[in-house]
Predict the structure.
Amino acid sequence: MPLHDAGMVVRSACAVAVLFAGALLSAQRPSTWRCKNVLAKDGASWMQDVVVTTILDHVISVKPAEPGEPVDTDFGDAYMIPGLIDLHTHLLLRPYDQVTWDEQVRTESNELRAIRAGTHALQTLRAGFVAVRELGTEGAGAADVALKEALAEGLVRGPMVFASTRAIARRGCYGPDPEDPTTKKGAQMVEGVDEIRAAVRAQAALGADWIKVYADYRHGSKGAVAPTFSRDELVALCDEAAKCKLPVAAHATTDEGIRNAVEASVRTIEHGAGASEATLSRMKAKGIVLVPCLAANEAIVRYAGHRGPIVERLNAAKAGFQRALAAGVTIACGSDAGVFAHGENVRELELMVEYGMTPEQALRAATSTAAAVLGRTDLGHIGARQSGLVVLTADPLRDITALRSVRAVIREGDERWGPR
């Protein structure tokens, strides 16, 4: 389904309630939620007729309902799943068919972009995503850290944010105007091991939870995509990140760029369409996770009117995903939302199924698998302390598009927010 059509379906569906509470944990009474179908920890089956008890973000019990047991909210025959996770978002960006990436980086103030990001965060939460990994502010400094803090303070509503601040790219290989050092850039530009290590330390000091690096990219404004950093440079980057106790996510689309990042022991490969069978085998052996960003590729092709060489980008993404799936590489959900509209993140999971995953595998990619990438045992399954709860009107294990039928998102208690 095209993204704009899917958005119309969501807006015309039943009202979505997002449930919150602002009271402190010690002052908040438990809330009880009854649901006919609650996703089991295996992610593949449903517990029947269950009462979930929460206090703010704490799930304190999951048990069979007793006859006549009073509850605060009874969702009837609905389906309850853990809150979803998107491992590749850009809340500081808006869709490129509204304003181009270059224009956003060049002309929009960081302050305006940060304020707008609050709206994007709420749209993301209302779509059922309770945690996101922000992979680069694209010229907006450490605004993702500020957004994370604002969310934690309750100043804005949205998912839990794992920030990466500026991202790291090689000088001359990232825009706008890669060859012009006077133009504001969408990442922190570096050259050589000393600058790479200094950039990692600087981003850690700003509050990064992850380090993002561009392991390959276009060289110059019109050059072909090729590795940007040598394997030794990426090893140095990962070493410095390890000293800061931070994992690394690597943008990489060519086989050589992916292989360099894999051998440097990054935690995830973003996009990864060009990985060969041998490189995928190394990814699997080292437990490195692919985050394919399929929805962003689809959107970019759509913006181009499905014409020209850009169409091959979508074909390559599909083929690369299918090779990785066949090779047994772990695949997690990351949509690159911001390239397309925030709140449409589920499109990534729909494409995963369209390209060969089962609905169960896709749902796991956005729950337990994504939680494992983040190193968070308190996310990704019902009963996890911070998971949040999403209530759907249809069964996503039968049809992944049921993830669009959001009836409620439960985070931090029971204050109701109105429909979109």
